[in-house]
Amino acid sequence: MACCGKQRSQSAGPDGRGGSPPERCFFRYVGRTALTVAGPVSGQYYRFPAPGATVEVDPRDAPAVEQVPQLRRV
Predict the structure, then answer these.
(1) Domain total in the chain
(2) How far apart are CA 21 and CA 53, in angstroms?
(3) What is the pLDDT along the chain (74 residues), one digit of tens a residue?
(4) Are 24 and 54 in contact (CB under 8 A)?
(5) Global pTM?
(6) 53 belongs to a structural domain
(7) Residue 34 is part of which domain span?
(8) Strand pairing partners for 60?
């Protein structure tokens, strides 16, 4: 019986589970004051200290962060 372990490890991504690494996600704040958003998946807090601030967001949190009206994905 042939072993496929070597082929599997060669196709694995950096996390060992395969596929490519998640893309980086950035959001820009277009509101008037500061804003803090909690990421529902990662549990991280994203602080936008002023209008125009751009913050990197965990790609797993991006779908929820996109629902915030004052944030735009860039």
Answers:
(1) 1
(2) 25
(3) 455 555 544 444 445 555 666 789 999 999 999 999 999 999 999 999 999 999 999 999 999 999 999 999 99
(4) no
(5) 0.70
(6) yes
(7) 23-73
(8) none
